[in-house]
Amino acid sequence: MSRQTVLSLGVALAVGAGCATLREEGWTGRPTVDPALVAHLDESEMGAIRKARSKVDEARDGLAKAEAMAKTAEERLDIARAEIEPADQRVEIAKRKLENARARGTTEDLERAEEDLESARADHRSARRKVAMREKELERERAGLDLAQARLDLAVAETELTQAEAVRELDRPAAGEIDLGEFRRAVREAKREVEVAQVRLEAAEEEVAIARDDYESARADDEGRPREASSRREENDL
After folding, report:
1. Nearest to residue 155, comparing CAs of 26, 25, 6, 30?
2. How many contiguous H segments (helices) and E segments (strands) does the chain have?
3. Max Cα-Cα span within the chain
4. CA atoms 70, 71, 72, 78: torsion sign
5. What is the pLDDT of residue 225?
6. pLDDT score for 16
7. Which of 11, 38, 66, 88 has the CA that lies 20 to 30 A from 219?
8. pTM value?
9. How far apart (Å, rounded) are the C-alpha atoms in residues 31 and 137?
10. Strand, coil or helix: what is 190?
11. How far apart are CA 171 and CA 163, in angstroms?
12. 157/150 Cα distance (integer angstroms)
């Protein structure tokens, strides 16, 4: 993780802590507009509200997509974890073969057993790094899910503000009681939460990149060793 990302994450978390303080100080939820008041608006006054509501629909679609991606990441992690036990078993089998080769095998048997153990250990390292990569990918998708939820919350807050501004002009007692400042504060809070979620997602993406590099490195070693072993065996057969 870069120093800039660490600093940004620290700032965003501090902002998030400030938002939590607002709730602790009595701001317990976001305000909403009574649908009965919205029903009194003229058709000409509904344009901005419909536009805001369409953004809510888009945000809901984004949330559904993020949920699906998180589920896929969970399934991939389960598959990667299932590969660990067979890799462990291959290492144990290779160890026993090496012990047998040392006890009563030929020099060629010993070399092959050592190569097989080295290859099995490489498979094992690759499998474990794959799990680590999948874990980081799941963390990223969960961070993306948090961001999608924050964006939905923001879209809802902005819609409520748009409705509040529209009904505030109605000639009705309930409309006059609407505190636009409360709605605007709700939007500011939602925007801060989006910023925090965005920084967390960026940090998670950096962690995925690091884990992927580690996995690809192990995989390259894993793919190279069998070729070397095969080459040596062919030379011994000549």
Report:
1. 30
2. 7, 0
3. 100
4. positive
5. 55
6. 43
7. 66
8. 0.76
9. 36
10. helix
11. 15
12. 10
DSSP symbol at 111: H
d(CA 129, CA 25): 45
Q: What is the C-alpha to C-alpha distance for residues 196 and 9, in angstroms, rounded to an integer?
A: 7
HSE (CB half, 13 Å, CA atoms) of 16?
15
What gap in Å lies between CA 198 and CA 9, rounded to an integer? 9
Q: Which residue stretches of the chain have pLDDT < 50? A: 1-28, 226-238
**Of residues 189, 219, 192, the one with CA closest to residue 83:** 219
Nearest to 144 by CA among 65, 212, 61, 76: 65
pLDDT at 174: 85
**Among candidate residues 193, 203, 177, the one with its CA nearest the CA of residue 31:** 177
Joined tokens for residue 185: 């504060």
What token pair was written down for 143?
Answer: 């961070």
SS3 34: coil
The SS3 assignment for 41 reads coil
CA distance 143 to 203: 9
For the stretch 43-95, pLDDT in tens is 988 999 999 999 999 999 999 999 999 999 999 999 999 999 999 999 999 99
